[in-house]
Design brief:
Order of helices and strands: HEEEHHHHHHHHHHHHHHHHHHHHEE
Shape: elongated
Low-confidence stretches: 299-309, 427-443
Distance between the termini: 40 Å
Helix content: 55-70%
Strand content: 5-15%
Mean pLDDT: 79
Strand order of the largest sheet: 1-2-3
Number of helices: 21
């Protein structure tokens, strides 16, 4: 049996006298298989199998898993392909998970092997862990999309076969989450709606309500986002949720209430959220002084003005354009900066940066304005918020603008490093798995 296994595998050969060989030792006992490489590493697999052919398949899985663990990925992949071609499952789902990882170069094949091993079936751990690994496979976005949708749809088919509406709802929720992550908000809403119909208890879950709020916010339905964020916040008063609610209220033009929500977010433990919420509260209060506690969103030709004399004339009629219009604030900010009114221009560029947090030029302009005559506390606040929302790379453009002043570049680079360390910016965020509503963070 073992000779046939080796002869049929392109990844293995019988030991010869070459010193370059890595010698894999296989010990078969009554109810154990022990696989090892000298005294360096070993793996023991206990089982009870009646058929010799079954034992051969299990050995293939075990060898692939072991090779993958000791980072002989090419050989592990070849044996994993043998497992796939055999069309049989492993009696250990843990071993099967390792073998699926060995197929990381082919995510669809890895997913098919996972389904073959029933990793998609209802379970608290295995489906989520497989998807977690799938998200970290080194392949392109298109392959990842195909593999993830295949896996979730297999879960959905299984739930329908079992006539389990709760599990069906969980699969729809997973599809909604996936499409939300791809910024496909209409699809996300469709699946979230199916999820709540099949599993009504979702409507009592704060995380589910907040995710609907996030999708509505992403699709610019701010009033709906406010509604669902408030429902979620009523269930669990979370610091980050208070920030998101403040964002939705800000974009809706409810400046007074948004400032209050940002103040609530400042009371939590997360320093990054506190920095972001503090600056946003300041901007919200500034907008309130300009436009009132609450405004109706509107459009105006002012938002489309270019840097001309016409734009300069618009400074006196600021209240006539949409209070949260990106181009309107951008043009006004440019004119004010050219007039040397940096503190006033700063607010306009910050509004732009909050509307489009990934806009490097908006953050660069905000940083430039903050460095010209604004107090040190505000400079630190702008820098902190820039790094929290955009990451360490967001300050690169500003550094380039200082390239002719090496002393300033050095001090600013040091300030960025210190702020990132203090706020925890740049650290990997641990994924969160949900077990029927509970949170489990992978350590």
């Amino acid at each position: 049996m073992v000779r046939r296994l080796v002869d049929e595998s392109g990844a293995l050969s019988w030991q010869d006298d070459s010193m370059r060989d890595i010698v894999l030792t296989l010990q078969l006992q009554s109810n154990q298989i022990i696989i090892s490489i000298g005294s360096v590493s070993s793996l023991t697999f206990s089982y009870a199998i009646s058929k010799a052919v079954d034992a051969e398949i299990q050995i293939r899985y075990l060898i692939s898993a072991f090779l993958n663990q000791i980072e002989l990925q090419h050989h592990a992949n070849m044996v994993a392909n043998d497992c796939m071609e055999a069309g049989a499952s492993c009696i250990s789902k843990d071993i099967a998970l390792w073998v699926c990882q060995a197929l990381s170069s082919d995510p669809v094949k890895a997913t098919k092997l996972a389904v073959l091993n029933n990793l998609h079936e209802p379970d608290e751990i295995y489906p989520a862990v497989f998807v977690y690994h799938l998200m970290h496979f080194p392949f392109g976005k298109r392959d990842r999309r195909k593999a993830i949708l295949l896996f979730i749809n297999e879960q959905l088919d299984k739930a329908i076969t079992l006539s389990d509406e709760s599990l069906e709802g969980m699969s729809y929720y997973a599809l909604g989450n996936y499409h939300a992550g791809e910024f496909e908000f209409s699809k996300a809403i469709k699946f979230f709606n199916k999820a709540r119909k099949k599993r009504p208890e979702y409507m009592g879950s704060g995380y589910f309500l907040s995710e609907i709020g996030a999708v509505l916010f992403g699709s610019t339905h701010f009033s709906g986002a406010v509604k669902f964020y408030k429902m979620s916040y009523a269930i669990k008063k979370d610091q980050r949720l208070a920030l998101y609610l403040g964002d939705a209220l800000l974009m809706q033009g409810q400046f007074s209430e948004s400032a209050l929500r940002f103040q609530q977010a400042q009371s939590g433990e997360n320093l990054g959220i506190r920095a972001e919420a503090g600056l946003k509260a300041s901007v919200a209060r500034w907008l309130e002084t300009k436009h009132g506690a609450e405004v109706v969103r509107k459009r105006s030709a002012v938002s489309r003005l270019s840097r001309t004399g016409e734009a300069k004339e618009s400074l006196g009629i600021l209240e006539k354009f949409d209070a949260m219009d990106f181009l309107g604030h951008w043009n006004i900010g440019i004119v004010l900066a050219e007039q040397g009114k940096y503190e006033e221009a700063l607010h306009h560029f910050l509004v732009c940066a909050f509307i489009k947090s990934s806009d490097r030029e908006a953050w660069t302009n905000a940083l430039i304005c903050s460095m010209n005559g604004v107090d040190a506390a505000t400079i630190q606040s702008v820098l902190s918020c820039c790094l929290v929302l955009g990451g360490p790379d967001m300050a690169d453009d500003f550094c380039q603008s200082l390239s002719h002043q090496s002393d300033l570049v050095e001090s600013f680079t040091a300030a960025v490093a210190e702020t990132c360390k203090r706020l925890g910016v740049g650290r990997g965020i641990k994924p969160t798995l949900r077990l029927l509503g509970d949170d489990l963070t992978i350590l």
